[in-house]
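User: Show me an example of a complex going from sequences to structure tokens.

Assistant: Sure. Here are the input components:
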Amino acid sequence: MGQRDIRTEMADIQDKIRDYLQHKLTGARSLTLSNFVQAAGGWSHEIYVFDAHWNEDGNERERGFCLRKDPGAGLLRELSDLKQQFRVLKALEPTTVPAPRAYWYEADTSILGGPFFVMEKVPGEVPNPWSRVGKQFYAEAAQRGRLPRSFVEALASLHNLDWRAAGLDFLGVPRPGNDFALREVAKWEGLIKQSLRKPEPVLTEILMWLKVNAPEAQRLAFVHGAYRTGNLIIRDDAVAAIIDWELQVIGDPMYDVAYVLSDLNREGSPLLSCIVDRDFFLDYYQQLTGLKVDLEICRYYEILYMMRSAAFWLSASGLFADGRNKDLRLARTTYSVPVVLDMAARALGF
Amino acid sequence: MIPARQLLSEIINSLRHVIAPAVAEPYPKAQAYMAAVILEFVSRQIEEGADLEAQRKVTLDAFFRDLADLPEIARLVDNSLPSELRLCKLIESLYEERDRLAPGAFTTANHRIRRTLRQLLDQELKIAKPA
């Protein structure tokens, strides 16, 4: 959002989205939108969630939608393509992976000022695991026991997916060996190079260590890249949908496992991702996937995630500093860089 | 004139306890809370800023001066570069050359580099560490 009055902007975009839906839903009459909100959670894209009501053949209809729009200067813009996200969601529709249904992708920037796609608004909630309320939600759900199982099952459904049959090889397939890890390091190093405003020796040391220690993948799987609470829609104590399809790759499933194991995603909670006991997670995941979790490889990927977080924050604060994005959450991340580098340094023993 | 630290503290309180709670829309509400968080960091930055730059320079100067007793490593240093970039390039060269260095040389130099990096990090964390 720019500096214009936010209510004017919201009313304007709501009108444009209504007109767009009216055009797409042929046969819909008297279409109106309600419960229209811009979600506070999106970093890389603007996210609008709303309900549409219309009359069709004399019948009243209602459906919830979620729209993701490229803001032009969002986080990870170079690494996260909306058209690719749309293709991934379409590919997942006939599979067992819980994900929202995707309806329309629009490259035409004249409609909303940037490319966007529209998907299903999946009923449920996405408690923020960093908030007090969210922490309490997950702690109580963990006690009841159903959500931790569902959390592991949804991850296993990703890693057990026949990604070639689903047509997901368009994401790029790493060569055997350590190609996947090296590709990830190179991807994030590229973002760092674009974003860095001054030399950062700690980051250089971490990057060099990652390059010379890249592990081999035991098998290739469809990997979400940011699997944690906060990126899952929860309904009736189960994962109703995995969301935030921005960083998915074909790669080492230990990459997702390491993210679950990481301290980055639990902020003091004894539970992984604030929801699941570590031993239960490891046992149940291995049982569902037939994979052996290699904790040494996971440790490598945890350090890679810390480097990746630093890349995120450098990119985010750079966008703000350049005046390309006025979201204050991006400005705050400049102070997160030393914190996450400290975590990586400690993991490497210094 | 009211001291900057006190003014910032009052603005932070107002944002966190008066302005943000009164905003209904999620996006501007989040912006108000975030402004309060950022101002807390800015407050520390104002207090520590000049000192930190000086400490950083002292740390880096000492590191390069002490490298004289590791001539095999010192030859990898490009003295034409500014000190932070010089250290980045040395780290890259050290990893690239590690198999060609004398036994133990990589470990010794890497240990010394990491000790310096820890000092640099600790200096930055005086501002950046969460309250």
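The lines above are the inputs; the final block is the predicted structure for all two components together. Residues 295-321 of chain A form the longest helix (27 residues).
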